[in-house]
Amino acid sequence: MATMATMAKDECASVGGGGGDRRPLAGRRVLVTRAGAQAAGFEEALRCAGAEPVTFPTITIDPAADDTGLDTALRHLDHYDWIVFTSANTVTYVEGRLQAIGLGWDALFRLHVAAVGPKVAEALRARGVAAPFVPDIYTAAALTASVPIGAGERVLLPQADIASPALAAGLRARGASVDPVVAYRTTLPHGDAGELRRRLAAGAIDAVTFASPSSAHNLCVVLGDEAARLLSTTIIACIGPSTARAVHEQGLRPAVVAAAHTVEGLIEALEEYYVSTTGTGSTTGMRGDDLVGSSHPTESPAEGPRDAESAAERSRDGRSEELFAEAQRYIPGGVDSPVRAFKAVGGAPRFIERGEGPYLYDADGNRYIDYVLSYGPLITGHAQPEIVRAIGEAAARGTSYGAPTRLETELARRINGAMPSMELTRFVSSGTEATMSALRVARAYTGRDVIVKVEGGYHGHSDGLLARAGSAATMLGVPDSPGVPAAVAATTVNVPLNDLAALEEVLQKYEVAAFILEPVPANMGVVPPAPGYLEGARALTQKYGALLIFDEVITGFRVAYGGAQGLYGVTPDLTCLGKIIGGGLPVGAYGGRRDAMSLVAPLGPVYQAGTLSGNPLAMTAGITMLDTLAGPGVYEGLEAKSRMLHEGLLERARRHGAPAYGTRVGSIGTLFFTPGPVTDYTSARASDTARYARFFHGMLERGVYLAPAQFEAVFVSTAHAEGDIEATLQAAGAALSTI
Ligand SMILES: Cc1ncc(COP(=O)(O)O)c(C=O)c1O
C-alpha cells in the first residue's frame, strides 16, 4: 500500500482503475463522523447529575498545537474536583499539554480521576495514575452511575479527537467534499439528524467514515431504527477491525476496512476501493447502479445530475460547521461570547449571515424565527428600517468624535423621562462596564466595600461579579472563574432570590455598599420577583445604609417602557442599562441619584472613562429605538404576543407529558422543564437541561431559534407576527412529541 506521501505525489499519476479516474476521491461526498463524540454525551450526563462539566472539545486540530484553552485549566486544577478521560488519545494529548506547561501527571494528585473504559484506565495506569473506570464505554449515563461524581462538583472533561480533523483534511486534499458530523451524541436524537437523514435518503452522501467504535455507535443512535436502511446505499469505511466489528454489530456492512490504524490507511483503502470499482460497474455488492452513475470521474457534487436547487442546497450544507472549525483556529472556542458556542446543548453553532424582522438566516441557507434577538436588544426585530436608516445617516457624518454631542443629551433625556430615578446618566459601551462602574460609585458613596448580589444573577463579567457563594459560615464569595483574585471575590456575597431574611442577615453582618440585582432576573431563565420582594429590598437597603442598584440591562425598556422599576413602582438608587438603549449597537449606561452620580469624574473624584462612550452611532440607534417604543400600543402588542407564545408553549409541553413550568414578565419568559415552582436559582436548576437540549435541537431543526441554553430568556419582538408565533407553537408541538 502506498504511503500518504507517495499518494500525494502521485495524485496526478495514473492510479485510476477502469474508469481512468486519476483522483479516485475527487468529487466524492464523504461524511466524516467524529471520533470521541461520546464526550458530548458525557457532558450532558454530568450536567444531569448536577455536576458542572467544563469541556475542551476543540482539542481536535493538532496534538502538537499550542494552548487550546486546556493549558489554562491545567494550570488551575485546584478549580476542579474531577478530571474524566474519554479516550486514550485524550490521555496522550493531556500528557503533551502538561509537559508543555512544565507539569507532570503528579499535578493531578488533588483530583479524582475517572477513565471511560478499560483501555483508557490502562493508558492512565501506565502513567502511574490510578483511575476507576466506566465499564460501558458507549453509554454516557454509565459515567455518573459508576463513578461517584456529586452535585455541584466541577469536572474537567478534555476531549481529544485527533482522527477526524486529520481525516477530513486528507480527504479534502484529494478533492473529496467533506461533510463533518461534529457532535453526534449518545443520548440525544440530535437536532441535525433530520438534516442528515434527508441527505442520506437523497443519496447526497457517497461514503461515511468511522474512526472509532464509539463513532459508529453514536451515528446509529442518532439515526435510530432507520440507520441500516439509510446507510444501505452508502459506502462504509472503518479504521481497523474493532471499528468494523462495531459497525457490523450495528447492522451495517463495512465495505472498506483499513488494516492500518491510521487516518492515512483509511484514505488509501478508500481510494483503492474506488479504483477497484469505478468503471467496472461492480460495487462489490455494496452499492447499486446509482453509485456508478454518480461517480463519474469529472463529476463534482454541484455539477451532478440532480437539479440546480438541491445542488446549491447541498453545497451550503455544513457551511456553519466549516465556518466554526475555521473560527476556532483564531478565536477562543470560535466565539466571542461563550453561550454562542452551543456547549450547553451540543452541536455546532449556526453561523449567521443576516437578520430581518423576526428572522435569522444562517450560512447553510436556513431561516429561523428568532427568539434570542441578540439576547435582548432587538425588541423591534432585526434590521428595523428606521434604525438602519438612522445609523447610515449618522455614519455618513462620522463614526466617533471623542467629543460631546447633543445625541448623548437626547438619549439621556429620554431615559430620564422613562425612569425618573436616573437623574444623571453616564454612557459606556457595554452592560458589564455599566454594572462595574455603578459598583464603584456605590463603594465611593458609602465608603464600604462589600457588594451583595443574587445567586444566579448575572451582571457581566467584571471580577467582583464573577463570585459564587463561599462557605455558609462567612458567606463571602469565592472566584467563579480562574483569573478572579480571591480577595476581590471575597468582597461579594450571594443571597438567594426572593429571600428577604437572608438579605437582612447579610446586611446586618457586613458593611454593605450595595445590593445589586436584576429586578426581574433573566439570567437563570426568567424568574419573577415574589410580591413584595423588591419593596422589601428597597426598605432593607435603606435601613442598613446600602445603595439599591437595579441592573436593568435586560429589563430596561423591555418589561415596560419605564423598565421593571416603573412596572413594580420601586425606585432604586442607581440603575444600569444596556441592550435596548443601543438599538442593537454596543452600549451601556449607569445612572441614578444626583448626589451619588455627582461623584463621577469630572464632576467628582470617581474615575471612569471610555474612548467610544456615547458613540454617535449607538446614541442615534438608541434614540430611534426609544422613539419607536414610545409609540402607542407597543407594549400591549408585545404583551399579547408573548402571552400567546408562552401559554402555548406551556400547554404543549404539558400535553406531551413533559414536566414544565412557565414564567413570563411582559415579552420575556422561560419554559423550564421541571414541575416547578421556579422561584430562585436552586429551583431553576432543577430543570431537566438534557430535555431542554433536545427541545432546542428539535426547534432548530424546525426553523425556530431559541437560546442555546436553558437558563436564558425567550425574547419576543414587535416584528414577530401572530403567524410566526403559531408556526412556533406548531414546531414546539412536533418537537415536544419526540423528546
Ligand atoms: C442583567 C445583565 N447585566 C449585565 C450584562 C452584561 O452586559 P454586556 O454583555 O453588554 O456586557 C448582561 C448581559 O447579558 C445582563 O443580562
Characterise the protein shown here.
The model is unreliable at 1-21, 57-66, 182-191 and 279-315 (pLDDT under 50). The longest helix has 22 residues, at 634-655. The protein is α/β, with parallel strands linked by helices. It is globular and about 80 Å long. Strands 14-22-21-20-19-15-18 form a 7-stranded mixed β-sheet, sandwiched between helices. It is built from 28 helices and 26 strands. The protein has 4 domains: 4-13 and 21-59 and 190-290, 3-Layer(aba) Sandwich (Rossmann fold), CATH 3.40.50.10090; 61-187, 3-Layer(aba) Sandwich (Rossmann fold); 340-382 and 634-736, Aspartate Aminotransferase, domain 1 (Alpha-Beta Complex), CATH 3.90.1150.10; 400-614, Type I PLP-dependent aspartate aminotransferase-like (Major domain) (Aspartate Aminotransferase, domain 2, 3-Layer(aba) Sandwich), CATH 3.40.640.10. The structure holds pyridoxal-5'-phosphate. The site of pyridoxal-5'-phosphate has 15 residues, from helix 18.
